[in-house]
Design goal:
Two copies of one chain form a homodimer.
Chain A: E1 10-15, H1 19-30, E2 35-41, H2 44-56, E3 64-67, H3 76-86, E4 91-96, H4 101-109, E5 112-117, H5 122-133, E6 138-139, H6 141-152, H7 163-172, H8 178-185, H9 189-203, H10 208-217
Parallel strand pairs in A: 1-2, 1-3, 3-4, 4-5, 5-6
Helix pairs in contact in A: 2-3, 7-9, 8-9
Chain A binds a DNA duplex (30 and 30 nucleotides) through helix 9.
GO molecular function (chains A, B): DNA binding
GO biological process, one term (chains A, B): regulation of DNA-templated transcription
InterPro entries (chains A, B): CheY-like_superfamily, NreC/VraR/RcsB-like_REC, Sig_transdc_resp-reg_C-effctor, Sig_transdc_resp-reg_receiver, Tscrpt_reg_LuxR_C, WalR-like
DNA sequence: GCTGACGTACGACAAGTGACGTAGACGTCA
DNA sequence: TGACGTCTACGTCACTTGTCGTACGTCAGC
């Protein structure tokens, strides 16, 4: 959709814990003649090891890493942050099935240069790779829409919560009681209850049970294993 | 691992809402010379429409449908049941990222002839297709392990619940209060509380908030959008 | 026919939860 | 400096939730 293909070959590292998905992505990329898959990794840690080993062997680093978010060992957000810090020349493009605002936000905040959903077609993936290689940012249309929605309604959703309320919400979503939350955050149970009450009000919820679902819906926490 | 390849070509229908996953699966299958991909579908409804249209045109139905579980419009379990009923010659093999006991159970119960996880390699997919084509059942090793674990400990997990308790648990996991659960099930609120109390005890949980997480962990309900 | 599991229901009680209001300390920003 | 937002904390009240014990009808299995 934008960004003319670079003249030189773009190296790509594919990171996903599902072999099938890696295979599909690689198939997409093989169709592009100025893109070369330089490696695959099954989780964030492997991705970093792969980059590290390329570096010590003096081999060229990939220009782009195409990365899933939910992975064992090290998830995509963490890996993205780590890559941005240790391998700043590598652009990270997220490719995931989750389109939750919080996750998108977190990924972009940690240096992601693109965000695709897994129902994206080959052309979207190509566009995202080219954009990233050119230091542009590519966002899936659906993703962009949600981001804009979020910015238009800044007071709705978890975005309207204070950071403390968000801490509390995360703990609620882990199944903790108010007492446990208080202990965890080193505050009194009364205060914990104040936060719970406030966040329920802001989110328009009637119980902590619903808060668990809301936290997951917004991508604030992962659904249980 | 088992099941010698059939002599004739095996037609396969690939059903997944993620284009990238379909592409990966198709790439796997293209490497097998006695397997032919006869169609792709993005959800359960499309899959049924596809089979229907092949039928009315008098074209041969696929021998195997490779199907994701979580899809929009119609999910995999429902589609599997429908296919088993209306197109009994088609064997359904599940290919999904969720390895929750309840889901596995539901899929097999509704007529699935195989269950793979998405981190399966090409050889697993091939083995599952061949097995299904030969009226055998192929289970991913990890999946089989969980099934066996489940059968060995029949009283633990949601399997130890009565069907009524399971109904209640599902409603809890939707964020309903005891009063709402009672209304929904047309029982008194006291009775609803009895069920809640009993199921919490059986699952070793301390609150309905934890029950929400347990229900998802076991695959009794889907995580929210 | 008896036993046991299940679903239903009640009462009473304790604990947990959520909605009020109030208030001080601290930081930021105009 | 003053206004504002945030985190902290307390008290109170009403409601919800969870536990325990009890009970009865039904249905399947021995």
């Amino acid at each position: 959709m934008s960004a003319e293909p670079e003249t030189s070959t773009i190296g790509v590292l594919v990171v996903d814990d599902h072999a099938v998905v890696r295979r599909g992505v690689v198939a997409y990329l093989e169709a592009l003649d100025n893109v070369e898959v330089v490696g695959e990794a099954g989780n964030g840690r492997e991705a970093l090891e792969c980059l590290e080993s390329l570096k010590v062997r003096g081999q060229p680093l990939p220009r782009v890493a195409l990365m899933d978010l939910m992975m064992p060992k090290m998830d995509g957000v963490e890996a993205t942050a780590e890559i941005a810090k240790r391998f700043p020349s590598v652009r990270v493009v997220i490719l995931t099935s989750f389109g939750e605002v919080e996750r998108i936000h977190a990924a972009l905040e940690h240096g992601a240069a693109g965000y695709l959903l897994k129902d994206a077609g080959p052309s979207d993936v190509a566009a995202a790779i080219y954009a990233a290689a050119n230091d542009d940012v590519f966002l899936d249309a659906a993703v962009a829409r949600r981001l804009v929605q979020k910015m238009r309604a800044p007071q709705r959703g978890v975005a309207g919560l204070t950071s403390r309320e968000r801490d509390v919400l995360v703990l609620i979503a882990e199944g903790r009681s108010n007492r446990e939350i208080a202990a965890k955050l080193v505050i009194s149970e009364r205060t914990a209850r104040t936060h719970v009450s406030n966040l329920l009000g802001k989110l328009g919820l009637r119980s902590r049970t619903q808060a668990v679902l809301a936290a997951m819906r917004e991508g604030l926490v992962d659904p249980p294993t």
